[in-house]
Amino acid sequence: MHELSIVMSIIEIANGEATKANAVKIDEIELEMGLLSGIEMSAFDFAWQEAVKSTVLENAERIIIRPGGKAVCLECNNSFDLDSLYSPCPVCKSHFINIIQGKELRVKSVTVE
Amino acid sequence: MCATCGCSSDQHHEHDDHHHHHHDQKTVIDVERDILHQNNLLAERNRGYFDAKNILCLNLVSSPGSGKTSLLEKTLTDLKGELDFVVIEGDQQTTNDADRIHATGTKVTQINTGKGCHLDSHMIFHALQGLKPKENSVLFIENVGNLVCPAMFDLGEKERVVIMSVTEGDDKPLKYPDMFHTSTLCIINKTDLLPYVPFDINKAKENAKKVNHKLEIIEVSCTSGEGLSQWYDWLKSKVPVPEMVG
Ligand SMILES: Nc1nc2c(ncn2[C@@H]2O[C@H](COP(=O)(O)OP(=O)(O)OP(=O)(O)O)[C@@H](O)[C@H]2O)c(=O)[nH]1
Ligand SMILES: [Mg+2]
Ligand SMILES: [Zn+2]
Ligand SMILES: [Zn+2]
Questions:
Q1: Where are the domains of chain B?
Q2: Is the minimum distance from the CB of B62 to ligand 1 under 6 angstroms?
Q3: Nearest CA in chain A to B120
Q4: Which ligand is nearest to the CA of A82?
Q5: Helix (H/G/I), strand (E/B), else coil: B27
Q6: Domains plus CATH for chain A?
Q7: B37-238: which CATH topology?
Q8: What is the ipTM metric for this complex?
Q9: Strand partners, B28
Q10: The pTM is what?
Q11: Which of A70, B78, B173, B222 is the most buried (most CB within 10 A)?
Q12: Shortest-distance ligand to the CA of residue B65
């Protein structure tokens, strides 16, 4: 359950931002978690529920943006969408690809009062 | 927590150039920070330490029981005298693996992660303070047996070695793509059992290459010793050449 470590890191970042802004709680947090980032959402939600109790994020509204996978084929230069790390290039079927989107794991913004 | 590594949560003073948008009384703060920022930062620190001391650090990952400790036992014994080794053992419980390493005469530190399912760069940072690996040594980190969670956590290693064994499915790379995607070498272990299991080794290699076209693959048996010399050659080829004095 590495999702718990991920949630703990988010809490740490949120805490730092709340402290800097002299806020005691965060109203909203915007996260970017790519579809290829290796996060299992049900595990993430479960970890979130448990971990945010008594923290600045306890009642925060969560907005999760999930960028889809995108890659560039290194054989034929074709850009394409992919839904797994092992999707081949649809044009030439090559696995020599470079993933350019979908692995994001970021805290984009927090909203405080 | 500790002052040496700056790991306490009140240490985020960077990014003071945030944009603040005000809506009513609410303020939106643009954070734009990688969630793994803290781990990556300490991983880079570890990497800097390894570079400075000319240490080759390898992170060994696999499902439970694929043969990480067995491969280490063989390697530490067979290459004793040729290379200087140190080992960090990560396990949720027990010091069994560390004891096995200790029995080969190699310096070893145990990290018990308790409920934690992976090592992180912070644990390694602290382990290094106790271990004090010598210059020009080879540091093996045996991660917790788990093919999912350790994938995301850079420890500062130079090489990540994923081990799978022929008693597992040949579709393992497709089921756990993240680990194969982030590794540099894949060792397929327990090849002595190939006659007894329905494991298609070519299929397994093909699947691993689908996930990571750069992945190198070596087949070994820790029991019979078959293929180990290829692994040793690979390992020696990765050892950085110490800078000549004068
Ligand atoms: N037949 C066969 N058995 C092996 C081989 N390598 C390891 N084993 C056996 O596989 C079992 C697990 O090996 P370990 O080296 O403890 O595996 P590990 O990956 O360190 O396991 P954890 O640390 O618990 O995740 C042991 O019983 C080994 O003797 C091999 O090449 N062939
Ligand atoms: Mg072991
Ligand atoms: Zn192509
Ligand atoms: Zn610390």
A1: 37-238
A2: yes
A3: A5
A4: 3
A5: strand
A6: 3-68+102-112 (3.30.2320.50)
A7: Rossmann fold (3.40.50)
A8: 0.89
A9: A111, B21
A10: 0.90
A11: B173
A12: 1
